Recover the amino acids of this structure.
């Protein structure tokens, strides 16, 4: 039978997982890497690169490379015009319509870009299952996660991306809820859980009650535009203010890479260097404090919505790469008055949970059940530009609501309806989801027709609308024109297009894998050579000329990694591996000895 | 019990054509999930009498139990008709749970069921309930004065203290209303248990409706003070 997987389609990285013998497992590539960077690059010859390879191309061909596309899902051009300045790729589209991302001569909608990532994950999983000797290794169904705070348009865009990638999207589930499933805080447990999820581009907080294996979300809150990317931007601004703002797109990407490295360094070190200058954790925390503070208010609001006090929460779970930042852990711990859980890898936990849900859906396993909520109120525009709410936020989904409309003029046969999502009073402050026209109302005097419009939010958090004229009991046909989405026809066409381009040449894939392998060896080598103890090792343990030999091998591999010759990359990777064997042993021994004796590595 | 004196209406299974009690979720003949009937109500759906005092933990447990029976997660591979029935039944369950969970939405729902809808909040705010005339008069006078003071530049913290003071009697009214509502809840439940005559039940329902209207009115007043304080 074909395979079912869970996919975490992240802002920064994406992963795929499945359930093996009852336990969820992340699928890794041959070099053991689970993360596929959510980066897509369209080369001049039309080849599409995804993941590490596309990430590398950010430094060489930035204008044809897109990252953090999740931020553009379900958005219109007017939503994102403010943030396009530091992005290397073109952001365009028609006013009032869906965003289009220009890579070279080609234009893609965000769901198409995401579909490239999904297809890569699908292939990765299929290759894995084939290696496992599965007879039917096709992956055709998936559960895909989204931030809990995603609105209808963003969820629909994610589902469209799945369809364009040739996947049957069995369910869209919320990332924090998925994480709680992965933590297996299931039926042995009865308690209240807060899941704090700070990822690359989005922030979510969900409060759940777990009892009898039912994971019931009580409230949720967040910000779909707040995450590690914002921290990177702050650091980039700091550097650009020092070096001058007029830089090439590739140089900006180098600065971004250095900023991210500094951010990572400061998660387990007290200081690092950024732009050649000393940069301490205290500096970093002062700089990012406003961003972390912005996550605390939604936490308080979610507690209030759940009718709970922070002290009543039994467990706090951390999700998302940005929760590795010590300041985040500290402030979350203070807010809830307890040390948060972080046993599971915060990058992997969402994909694991998605795999659990995929397993539940495909096998009918009833041990656990997720009951999620809709994060935003749903309503319609009424007289005077005011939003009238029909389904309140934090309602358990699936949920329904209905409203009866009538006509304002004699013999009026159609009524225009504007569907909105949000908490604000005025239409203009909320999200426009769709406009549609109710047609076919039988001609009668004004005010006599009674059209009941039923809004249904399904278990994916996605809306559908039906209408019925109550006097005649005629069901109306509704054409919903999504404000910031694709029509079914567009999705269909993109799916067909993708088949034409799908045979992304097998040789190209093998080349990419070879490059990934090379990249991980380079990274490991550079990490060791950057570490503070390297100077001591070089002096005490390395043979004369050994360091130069390693550096030469490193440079040689770097020189060929961007070339298209797979064999040469393989050869140079092997050479670097050999050259660093001794160094790796020495470094390993030192850290083991240091751990055994409890001393600082430098003193050994 | 009163709600069971009338004959139990039937629903028809769309799959096998068999009949089923209106509060059944699955067809007793073919075991398929039933398309939701238009005749049920939230209490029946959850297997509860129409009482106003509901144990929160009992309600939670029923909710979880029923969710486990017909959540769409368990019908992914079923026929389109069953999937639709599961979606509709789950939506209805969620609406029922949400409505019955809070005492106020619960009593408003009961009043609607019994044909004594309390009216929309907008309607409720039009007419001052007799019981509140005195307080409303005093409050409006105070609010007018505060607005004048604000216009003439009196510092906000001074106005805040006055608003706090003005809120006290209204809060007290609300508290006494809560207590009255609670008593009426108990009275209604006792009438149901003793199978009391319709006229007697009607009287309690009417009192409940009046208290709910007043309560909505009081809440509007408090919201008005809140708005004034946020200026």
């Amino acid at each position: 039978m074909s395979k079912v997987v869970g996919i975490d389609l992240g802002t920064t990285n994406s992963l795929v997982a499945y359930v093996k013998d009852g336990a969820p497992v992340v699928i890794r590539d041959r070099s053991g890497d689970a993360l596929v960077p959510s980066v897509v690059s369209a080369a001049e010859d039309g080849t599409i690169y995804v993941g590490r390879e596309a990430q590398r191309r950010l430094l060489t061909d930035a204008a044809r490379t897109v990252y953090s596309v999740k931020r553009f899902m379900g958005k219109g051009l007017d939503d994102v015009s403010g943030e396009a300045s530091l992005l290397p790729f073109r952001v365009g589209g028609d006013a009032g319509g869906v965003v289009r991302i220009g890579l070279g001569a080609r234009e893609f909608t965000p769901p198409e870009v995401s579909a490239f990532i999904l297809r890569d994950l699908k292939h990765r999983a299929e290759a894995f299952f084939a290696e496992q000797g599965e007879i039917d290794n096709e992956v055709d169904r998936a559960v895909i996660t989204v931030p809990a705070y995603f609105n209808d348009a963003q969820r629909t865009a994610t589902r469209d991306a799945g369809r364009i990638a040739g996947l049957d999207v069995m369910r869209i589930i919320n990332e924090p809820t998925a994480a709680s499933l992965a933590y297996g805080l299931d039926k042995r447990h009865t308690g209240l859980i807060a899941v704090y999820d700070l990822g690359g581009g989005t922030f979510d907080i969900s409060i759940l009650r777990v009892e009898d294996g039912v994971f019931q979300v009580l409230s949720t809150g967040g910000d779909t535009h707040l995450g590690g990317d914002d921290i990177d931007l702050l650091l980039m601004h700091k550097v650009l203010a020092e070096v001058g703002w007029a830089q090439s797109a590739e140089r900006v990407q180098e600065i971004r890479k250095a900023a991210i490295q500094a951010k990572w360094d400061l998660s387990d070190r007290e200081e690092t260097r950024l732009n050649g200058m000393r940069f301490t954790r205290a500096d970093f925390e002062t700089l990012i404090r406003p961003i972390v503070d912005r996550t605390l208010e939604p936490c308080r609001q979610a507690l209030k919505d759940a009718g709970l006090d922070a002290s009543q929460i039994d467990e706090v779970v951390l999700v998302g790469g940005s929760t590795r930042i010590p300041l985040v852990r500290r402030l979350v711990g203070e807010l809830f008055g307890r040390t948060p859980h972080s046993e599971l890898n915060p990058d992997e936990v969402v994909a694991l949970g998605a795999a659990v849900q995929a397993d539940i859906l495909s096998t009918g396993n009833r041990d656990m059940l997720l009951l999620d909520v809709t994060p935003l109120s749903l309503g319609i525009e009424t007289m005077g530009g005011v939003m009238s709410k029909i389904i309140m936020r934090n309602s358990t989904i699936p949920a329904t609501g209905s409203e009866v409309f009538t006509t304002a003029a004699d013999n009026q046969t159609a009524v225009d309806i504007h569907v909105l999502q949000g908490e604000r009073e005025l239409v203009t402050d909320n999200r426009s989801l769709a406009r549609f026209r109710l047609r076919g109302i039988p001609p009668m005097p004004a005010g006599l027709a009674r059209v009941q419009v039923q809004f249904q939010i399904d278990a994916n958090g996605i809306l559908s609308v039906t209408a019925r004229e109550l006097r005649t009991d005629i069901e109306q046909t509704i054409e919903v024109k999504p404000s910031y989405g694709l029509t079914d026809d567009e999705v269909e066409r993109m799916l067909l297009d993708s088949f034409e381009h799908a045979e992304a040449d097998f040789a190209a894939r093998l080349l990419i894998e070879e490059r990934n392998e090379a990249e991980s060896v380079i990274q490991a080598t550079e990490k060791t050579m950057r570490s503070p103890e390297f100077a001591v090792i070089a002096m005490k343990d390395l043979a004369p000329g050994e360091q130069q030999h390693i550096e030469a091998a490193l440079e040689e591999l770097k020189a060929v990694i961007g070339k298209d010759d797979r064999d040469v990359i393989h050869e140079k990777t092997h050479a670097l591996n050999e050259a660093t064997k001794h160094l790796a042993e020495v470094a390993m021994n030192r850290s083991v000895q240091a751990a055994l004796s409890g001393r600082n590595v430098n003193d050994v | 019990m009163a709600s069971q004196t009338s004959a139990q209406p039937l629903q028809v299974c769309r799959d096998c054509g068999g009949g089923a009690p209106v509060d059944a979720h699955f067809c007793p003949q073919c075991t398929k999930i039933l398309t939701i009937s238009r005749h049920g109500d939230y209490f029946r759906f959850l297997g509860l009498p129409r009482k106003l005092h509901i144990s929160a933990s009992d309600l939670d447990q029923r909710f979880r139990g029923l969710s486990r029976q017909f959540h769409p997660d368990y019908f992914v591979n079923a026929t389109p008709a069953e999937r639709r029935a599961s979606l509709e039944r789950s939506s209805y369950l969620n609406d029922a749970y949400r409505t019955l969970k809070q005492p106020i939405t619960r009593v408003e729902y009961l009043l609607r069921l019994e044909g004594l809808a309390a009216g929309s909040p907008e309607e409720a705010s039009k007419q001052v309930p007799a019981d509140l005339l005195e307080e409303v008069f005093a409050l409006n006078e105070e609010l007018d004065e505060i607005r004048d003071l604000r216009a003439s530049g009196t510092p906000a913290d001074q106005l805040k203290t006055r608003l706090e003071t003005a809120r006290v009697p209204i809060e007290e009214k609300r508290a006494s209303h809560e207590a009255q509502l609670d008593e009426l809840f108990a009275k209604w439940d006792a009438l149901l248990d003793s199978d009391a005559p319709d006229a007697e039940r009607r009287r309690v329902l009417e009192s409940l409706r009046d208290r709910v209207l007043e309560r909505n009115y009081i809440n509007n007043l408090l919201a008005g003070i809140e708005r004034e304080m946020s200026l």
Observations:
- Chain A touches chain B through 23 residues (CB under 8 Å).
